[in-house]
Amino acid sequence: MTEKIEKSKKIWRRSFLTLWFGCFITALGYSMTMPFISLYLDTLGHFSNWQLNLYSGVAFAITYFSQAIVSPFWGSLADRKGRKLMCLRASGVMACTIFLVGAANSVWMVIFLRFLQGVFSGYINNATALMAAETSHEKSGQVMGNLMTANVSGTLLGPLFGGVIAGAVGYRSTFFITGLLMALVFVLTFLYTKEHFKPVPAKKMKSMVMIFKELTNRRLIIAMFLTTLLVQSSLMSIAPIISLFVRELMHNQGNISLVSGIVAAMPGFGTLLVASKVGHLMDRSKPEKVLTFGLFITIAVFLPMYFVVSPWQLGFLRFILGLSSAALLPAVQTILTIDVPDEAFGRIFSYNQSFQATGGVIGPLLGSFVSSIFDYQSVFLVTSLLIVLNLIIVYRVMDDSK
């Protein structure tokens, strides 16, 4: 019996490490390319500042737009076929589309490939759902926190690697390397991930309407969906224009690519520093309390960003933002893990991904729109208002559930 338990633990640990690595590479590849996509687009034609802001926003948002539309379909398929298959689907197609972005010769080709990438994306979301289903509720917070370190570590190192590669051999190479890394993730996930999944026939699956009716705290689940949307919108609002903002702060002097990469990576340092500890805290305390505290700190950090006059000031504040971010989306995922039945994990997590993807659409477009009309700093005032709204929603739901 002891031998069987040890074997089971070994299989679980191998699956976790494989998916951790897969999430790390997915985040690494994303962050290697995204901070510089506006600069990459600038090499594909002659654009005004307004056009470049707009194209950058669309190139960012289009992936999340398509992801938001198709995520419920993939979630339903995941509940019928398993989450491992969804991880393979995501990593395989992303390997192809990201590689081809590096070979694009026009802005519209980049936008189309980014759209296609969004249709088949979802590795991190499905890896999270897979591990949530394979882990006891008592350790959910710890596992969600540790998976967060994979995401954050990739996000942290990606801009640094991307900045060095882009500065040395050009922007296109970052896309080629990312595509090859995602192909490696596909192979490792196929070979080393084990999922204890029993397929559910489509006819026996409960509808989402029925599942929501059976949930004991429907308002809390809906509030978590909205939290995911608003948090993602806020965090992504500056993403498509951060390199342009850094270029403005540096007065178009110096190694803009490298400094942009460092500034983009700073939240990763903060989140990586505390993500595991936050996970343990959520297992000992209520994740709702951790989420509320994180939202409050995030508001306090966004407001001073309006007054920055150098990239290093922006980088420092983004580091503090990373500390608070560790208490946001992992707390949401922990709440969903605890309050959702196992047979609905795929669909609930896919709906949450749809809201996250919608935030990925709203945030970049909002940031591009605000920066085009006013200035880059004004984006931070708008994102502060979004987090204030989020905090009000969470407070009201928590008060009603007491």
Automatic annotation (TrEMBL):
GO cellular component: plasma membrane
Major facilitator superfamily (MFS) profile domain segment(s): 15-402
Topology of the protein relative to the lipid bilayer: Multi-pass membrane protein
Source organism per UniProt: Liquorilactobacillus oeni DSM 19972
GO molecular function, one term: transmembrane transporter activity
Keywords, sorted A to Z: Cell membrane, Membrane, Transmembrane, Transmembrane helix, Transport
Source taxon at top rank: Bacteria
Subcellular compartments: Cell membrane
Protein's UniProt keywords contain Transmembrane: yes
Transmembrane segments: 16-41, 53-74, 86-105, 145-169, 175-193, 220-246, 258-278, 290-309, 315-336, 380-398
One Pfam family from the record: MFS_1
Plastid keyword on record: no
Name by which UniProt lists this protein: Multidrug resistance efflux pump
